[in-house]
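Posting for a labmate who doesn't have an account.
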Amino acid sequence: MNERVNAFFDRFDLLVMPVAPVCAFEHDFRPSNKRTFDVDGRPIAYNELMVWNALASVFGLPSTIIPLGTGDNGLPVGIQAIAKRFNDITSLDFAERVEAVLPASPAPKEFLL
């Protein structure tokens, strides 16, 4: 599988994808195996969120999360930019360029002092 990942990054500088299949949501304090979230009207197991960051984690790829604003619930929405292994500067540079052309994302009210 490493060969396929390397082949992808030989052709492309970045993989840009959602951070998760849903917008940020309020914390659920139940055990993780009891938590679900809604995707298109279907309950999905909370642990399935891990699939979205697994690519970067499993293959040791740098991933930078870029805030894009807030969803209808007022919580953050963003994308992740994944770069080739040891090319952290590529995802960081992309994030900087995106943030330069977007308005600043407000922090959730709960985090403001």
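Reply:
Got it, the structure tokens are right above this. The beta strands are 14-18, 36-39, 42-45, 63-70, 76-83.
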